Amino acid sequence: MKKLLGATSGKVLLSLAALGVSAGIAGLGTYATFTSTTSASQTATSGTMTIELGTPGAANRLTVNATGLVPGDTAQRAFNLTNAGTTNLASIKMTVTASPSSLLDTDATDGLQMVVDRCSVPWTESGTTPAFTYTCSGSTSSIIASRAIIGSNLDMAALSALTASGTDYLRLTLTLPSNAGNSFQGLSSTVTYTITGTQSAPTNK
User: Three-state DSSP class for 8?
Assistant: First the structure.
């Protein structure tokens, strides 16, 4: 019995010795490393596009109806147009539709005609609703030349509102031509003016 126990003890010691050698070999592969880190951060934001009409009143008379028109009559309506966004625009265009519709807007020759003019300063308003008239104490320019009232993507060139924060002082004049005949009596059209701004071309920022 003693001999056997002695043999077993010897094996245990040999195993422990082997483990010690392995640990020593593993320790030979451990070493320190140098590191260096740098970083940067930035904020990216998107621009806004907001075309606004003036507050209803002297700055926006487009919602004032033109009633009782007879051949040769005109109806003037002033309105401000502002680029309230942060982005410059490549173009501003107007689309005019009518619903319900009538001969007043479907007849391109004898039906309603439209002109849009710009004043370099706010228009001076005279008259009482709905018979407003306007004069310009600055300089005037044509934005949309005389044409039939209904149209799509009518270019409104050379506006200050093409630039962010720019405002234009505009006047729309409707005319029922003097040669509109009896077939134009008692008609009604509801006209909607839609103004759309399109962003300028992409650039490096």
Answer: helix
SS3 assignment, position 20: helix
Which residues make beta-bridge pairs with 113? Answer: 148, 175
Residue pair 81/193 in contact by the 8 Å Cβ criterion: no
Other beta carbons less than 10 A from residue 45's beta carbon: 7
User: Of 200, 201, 176, which is closest to residue 71 (Cα–Cα)?
Assistant: 176
The set of long-range contacts for 32-35, using a CB threshold of 8 Å and a minimum separation of 24, is none
CA 93 from centroid of its chain's CA atoms: 12
Question: Do the beta carbons of residue 141 and residue 187 sit within 8 Å?
Answer: no
| DSSP code for 123 | P
- Closest residue by Cα to residue 152 from 162, 160, 144: 144
Closest alpha carbon to 183 in 71, 97, 74, 68: 71
Give the integer Cα–Cα distance in Å for 83 and 89: 9
Which residues lie across from 89 on neighbouring strands? 199
Whole-structure pTM value: 0.81
For 13-69, write each residue's pLDDT tens digit. 444 344 444 445 455 567 788 999 999 999 999 999 999 999 999 999 999 999 999
